[in-house]
Protein 1
Amino acid sequence: MAHIETPPGHVAEAHFDTKPIWRTFWILLGITMVELLLATIHLKTGFPPKYVLNGVYLILTCAKAFYIIAEFMHLRHEIKNMIMTIAVPALLFVWFIIAFLWDGNSYRELRNRYDRHHAEQNLIKAPPREEPAAKKPGQPD
Amino acid sequence: MAQAVPAGQKWWSGGKSPFNVEYGKLMMWYFLMSDAFTFGAFLISYGTIRFSSNGWPDPNEVFKAFPLMGETNLPLVFVSLMTFILIASSVTMVLAVAAGHNNDQKSVTKYMILTIIGGLMFLGCQAWEWTHLHGEGAWWGRNPFPNADGSVASTNFTTFFFTITGFHGFHVFSGVVINCIMLIKNLRGDFAKRGHYLMIEKAGLYWHFVDLVWVFVFTCFYLL
């Protein structure tokens, strides 16, 4: 996630360079556009399949997070030891995400297997939503 | 930003600040890390509940409205606009930090004003979205949207949505307040007198963190 490399012989310039800022902006905007394009293609055609897309979304999200932290928050240009005090505790998220999502999934499977009533609840269809015909005054659309 | 660092510097031999950053900035980083775990806990609990549910509403069915467009089906368009606004205000914030490095008080003022405007625009968008969803009948403990497969949905979806975007929106709001204070201090010439603009950098770190969280909220609620 975090970039752990201090550029060798790094010397702070007296003049802050704004070029990498704009480059990062275009990268972030580009990634967001790609995500939206993929979502729109999926809505129109049903391709690529949702689980493939979800993986792509997560990778692209981590890429965006990396650019924001490394360039906008300037962490990439700090000293390696300081970066590590942020990056190492953040690794706790790896366990955090895997353990909890796994647990949620396991709970769903166990409940569907042993709780007949719960599994059957999912077969009840929701009544069709009535169209919001008459808008109340002051209510935005 | 870090001071100039000669090659082969021995950081731990005493007499120097081994992380080469100012105390307040380091503490801002650690605060943001703890805040990241707070948001992480929210989003992961959302994920856990979603994984444990047999059905979940389709975000493209829920978030498809745009101001003044009535019933037109425009999934993702409004939230893309919000994302763009937040990224743009993040850029103006870095430009303010850069201007601070060059001791350019006028540019700092200009970019801080732009950043505040961006934050207010984002908050306005969020207020509109909340009002719209509330008008549809969604609120904490109330969910009018059926699951994607047509079955009856629990209220978990809306409760998580309002809690997490609300918590994020509150961060944006406090970020705007902090940025306003920085703008006033800059206009009074406090930073120019002090000779450095480190306060702008610390406010900037907080502001980028808000943007960072939005990246994850955007993915978790609107894309997945």
Note: The mean pLDDT of chain B is 92.
Protein 2
Amino acid sequence: MMSEPEHGPEKDVEYHPNSRFSQEIAAEPGGEYIRKCIQCGLCTASCMVANYTDKYRPRRIIQKILLGEREQVLASELPWLCMTCRLCEERCQEGVSLAEIFHVVRDIAAREGRVPKVFKDTVNQVLKDGWLLKDAFSDFIQDDRTDLGLNPEVNFDGEFVKKVKKRYFEQGDKEEVKDE
Amino acid sequence: MKEFVLYTGCTAPVRLPQYEASVKVVLDKLGVKIVDMKGANCCGAQYVESVNRHAFAAMSGRILALAETYDRDILAICGACSGSLKWIKHSLDNDWKLKDEVNRILADEGLEYTGKIQVKHLLQVFHEDIGYDAIKEAIVKPYSAVRLAAHYGCHVTRPYDIVRVDDPENPTIIDHLIEIAGATAVDYTGKTRCCGGPMLAMDQEVATKIGMDKIRNIRAENVDGIVTACVFCDIQLTQVQFGEGAQDESRIPVLTLPQFLGPALGIEPSRLGIGYNKISPSRVFASVVEV
């Protein structure tokens, strides 16, 4: 009779994350449940982005966070590829919200000045105009709106965002996230 | 009857004004009174949301506080906006520090968020405030022999604990409304999957592949049209059909839910802005009106 392979207490296996990155994320609103992840991969299996690009594997990003690869994760564009569609979150058996965790990662990256250009440009546009499409709003659109029985004016406020910008974004330009 | 203050968001008024117009005409027909929110700002979805939690809370929080000055619940017609407003409302109602922070920045304008108003997506107004029975009674020109696929929008239905619109795994409101109006609601693979719209900023190629995945799954069911309830989804599912690789196949009309309901309620298509749809939905309307 063959003897069972010895498992028992893994005296030879030591698990040391490289940093306290997962604790750092768990301390922020939305990041609380990251350490409940059991690395089953249901998120990657559900993900439409992962379905169409091999570079994006949400389970692996969570794994890197759990392993404490702080610099690698924050310097990467991958956490910015989540569409926050929450299909994975709907299916996760452990209650882990990847959309929220990636928002926390983005928030931390942004505090360190690492924001992909398209996000930075769009945020700057919104904080300048108060809304997204001021540049696209033309006489032609006004004519269409009149034709549709709508008020041709769209009446957005451009003042409040100046306060938002001053209070939360007055930190100057910083480095951008690099492509992988 | 119920009254709402309409928050259109940034995109509908410019890129999909026919949605804004048809929402107003159809809700008016069904006895719901709408007033426009004036002096609003972007809700902060996706972009500000990604880079600064407090700034996002301030932007959506201001819209919630503005609605309080109208003393009406908010009607949101865009998935991104309804999702953001509901998310921030939930955060403000459960985090007094965040609420204090938001109210500090709102105080300059004499605004205050107290939490007394609710945020409803258009689907909820049809389902909860008007109700299926009243809509059924209002149908004067039912569709016949028209097959339609519902696309709900991720941020409309998820996360359920916050948005509370419909079953996130098996949503049914649009399907019910399609059937009530006399058409056939068709199921398809990947119904609750994303349209790919949120990926446009970072990777347009992947965004288009995700959108076309949905179009292919819908096409396999031989439908006459797609019915949407989100500005971005409607635009994305239309646009991907004009990309490379889509030219040889016939395009499937994409129309917003009120544009679909309107003709069955006896509303002239011109008042629903049907002419502004990039893919003519005439085959959808053939059984009810001449377009």
Note: DSSP finds ten helices and no strands in chain A.
